[in-house]
């Protein structure tokens, strides 16, 4: 079974997606996370802006927290897409991700945290060669989340604009405290660091460090 | 190895610390043969730049021999190199435009969090200059790890003494870029505030670039003498009304370009300088800017401001009206060292530029704390300190 542009094959999955989007981005939003990416920021008596939805002054959409970030990388789109699409590469620039493994169509992300690992189980919902990869968590995932990364040619031959957006329900309880430590305290920080490390790795071939010695 | 480390305001010590290693493929490790104390190290020493931790190794002007190379380094063991104080990847948008000090990648991602909220964008990596610029261990040490060693270091032919080329690491290209930012035209007069090393090299550079006249402003007699020795006319601001003098020395027009080679710890006798000093001491304002304000008032209509002096935060009583109404242009920034390295090395080899006149004291690395104290407190006599590890 493969998940492509047409989205989810099961009714339950579709409901989950719709529910997520309705909650995540407001009732006016139609068209999934695509819309969330370019969600209009309607101020009272204002006009819809062209800025990405995640730059909105509100940080929660229903139960969902949304965060996103764009970075320009001086490398071709196809090269960046291919590197990202091989999820086993992701731990090389996502410092909290220990490993990503596949169980059939489901990718299992193991995130190291004090007090125990957190596992996100997700399947790919959209996959457009050299343009976009989107995913949504499935049952059994420790965190209810969806996200996507898009790759667009930057103007003037400046490489590729890579935009990553993630929506998630901040968990509660013990797990919540754990995840909060990882993400919620500075939800944008983790994402922007990871994108910057991706840029370093792709542009320079290494992840920059000021450490003077190998870790003991 | 032995290294000069920061322990607090006006407290630096030479400690024994672990030797650096190769971490990334493009790294090299350099054994330092000569290193200098920079005027901007005094900003760290005085505690006016945030983001230093106890034990941080200082120093961003250094050179030495290559002793280890990573897989993708283009250097070879045994080569002599001068290392730019700016760390640049050579591959990002800014590096490709030769804006090396704006490199996107040289400051580690987690350290970029410190300056992104402060400046709107994260700063690039610099050696030995606080965790705002990466927390890189500096070169006032026996060894240093040099990232992106295929881009930064410039190889020095064996015939040239260390002291003739050491300042390619920072102050010579910084003075050169300061003069370049003046866009000097025929007949131009350039006024330079501050006759420290950068100011002096800016004077030298402006004259090479064809300035008709350079006027240097300071209050240390020996430094003014050095400026005069390079061909500048001089003003001692303790004895002269600077603005009036600059108008009278330029036919009533004002200097065509002005250089603030002083920065955030400006002295001065005017009320704004005293108020700035008080605010900096109590932590209300990071930057003292008397020299900059005076330069903006002095420069002719439609003139250029070049600001190599270092600032870290905010300034008030800024003469914004004068800046707009006179239609001024303003250029500044950390130096794009790698852009100038080869050209300046050639000028040194050809004898056009001499940098050794500046060096007043040579000390062992072990005596570095003495060097800091005197460079700060006896500025007239201690113009430049070179340390030998």
TrEMBL record, chain B:
Residues 197-264 form the Alcohol dehydrogenase-like C-terminal domain. GO terms for molecular function: oxidoreductase activity; zinc ion binding. It holds the Pfam family ADH_zinc_N. Residues 25-153 form the Alcohol dehydrogenase-like N-terminal domain. CDD domains: FDH_like_1. Keywords: Metal-binding, Oxidoreductase, Zinc. The keyword Oxidoreductase applies. Its cofactor is Zn(2+). Belongs to the zinc-containing alcohol dehydrogenase family. This is Glutathione-dependent formaldehyde dehydrogenase.
């Amino acid at each position: 079974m493969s998940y492509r542009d047409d989205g989810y094959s099961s009714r339950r999955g579709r409901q989950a997606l719709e529910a997520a989007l309705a909650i995540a981005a407001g009732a006016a939003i139609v068209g999934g996370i695509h819309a969330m990416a370019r969600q209009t920021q309607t101020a009272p008596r204002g006009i819809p802006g062209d800025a990405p939805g995640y730059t909105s002054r509100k940080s929660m959409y229903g139960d969902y927290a949304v965060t996103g970030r764009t970075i320009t990388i001086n490398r071709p789109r196809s090269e960046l897409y291919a590197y990202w699409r091989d999820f086993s590469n992701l731990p090389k620039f996502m410092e909290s991700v220990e490993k990503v493994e596949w169980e059939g169509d489901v990718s299992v992300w193991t995130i190291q945290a004090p007090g125990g690992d957190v596992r996100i189980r997700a399947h790919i919902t959209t996959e457009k060669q050299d343009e976009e990869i989107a995913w949504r968590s499935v049952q059994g995932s420790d965190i209810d989340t969806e996200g996507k990364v898009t790759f667009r040619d930057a103007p003037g031959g400046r490489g590729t604009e890579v935009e990553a957006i993630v929506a998630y329900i901040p968990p509660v309880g013990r797990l919540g405290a754990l995840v909060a430590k990882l993400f919620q305290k500075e939800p944008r920080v983790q994402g922007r660091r990871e994108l910057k490390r991706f840029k370093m790795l792709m542009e320079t071939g290494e992840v920059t460090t000021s450490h003077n010695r190998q870790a003991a | 190895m032995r290294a000069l480390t920061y322990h607090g305001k006006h407290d630096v010590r030479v400690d024994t610390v672990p030797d650096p290693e190769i971490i990334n493929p493009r790294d090299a490790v350099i054994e330092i043969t000569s290193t200098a104390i920079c005027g901007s190290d005094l900003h760290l020493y005085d505690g006016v730049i945030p983001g230093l931790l106890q034990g941080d190794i200082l120093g961003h002007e250094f050179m030495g021999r290559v002793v280890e190379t990573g897989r993708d380094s283009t250097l070879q063991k045994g080569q002599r190199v001068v290392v730019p104080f700016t760390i640049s990847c050579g591959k990002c948008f800014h590096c490709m435009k030769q804006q090396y000090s704006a490199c996107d990648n040289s400051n580690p991602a987690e350290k970029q969090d410190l300056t992104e909220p402060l400046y709107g964008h994260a700063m690039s990596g610099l050696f030995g200059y606080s965790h705002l610029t990466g927390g890189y261990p500096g070169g006032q040490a026996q060894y240093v790890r040099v990232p992106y060693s295929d881009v930064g270091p410039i190889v020095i032919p064996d015939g040239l003494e260390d002291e003739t080329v050491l300042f390619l690491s920072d102050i010579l290209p910084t003075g050169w870029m300061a003069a370049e930012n003046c866009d000097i035209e025929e007949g131009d007069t350039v006024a330079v505030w501050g006759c420290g090393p950068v100011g002096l090299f800016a004077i030298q550079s402006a004259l090479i670039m064809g300035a008709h006249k350079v006027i240097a402003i300071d209050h240390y007699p020996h430094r003014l003498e050095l400026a005069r020795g390079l061909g500048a006319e001089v003003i001692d601001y303790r004895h002269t009304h600077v603005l009036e003098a600059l108008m009278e020395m330029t036919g009533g027009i004002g200097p065509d370009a002005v250089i603030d080679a002083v920065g955030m710890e400006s002295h001065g006798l005017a009320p704004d300088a005293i108020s700035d000093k008080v605010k900096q001491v109590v932590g209300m304002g990071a930057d003292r800017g008397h020299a900059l304000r005076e330069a903006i008032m002095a420069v002719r209509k439609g003139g250029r401001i070049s600001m190599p002096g270092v600032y870290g935060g905010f300034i008030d009583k800024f003469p914004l009206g004068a800046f707009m109404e006179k239609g001024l242009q303003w250029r500044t920034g950390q130096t794009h060292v790698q852009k100038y390295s080869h050209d300046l090395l050639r000028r040194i080899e050809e004898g056009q530029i001499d940098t050794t006149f500046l060096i007043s004291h040579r000390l062992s690395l072990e005596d570095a704390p003495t060097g800091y104290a005197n460079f700060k407190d006896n500025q007239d006599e201690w113009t430049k300190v070179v340390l030998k590890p």
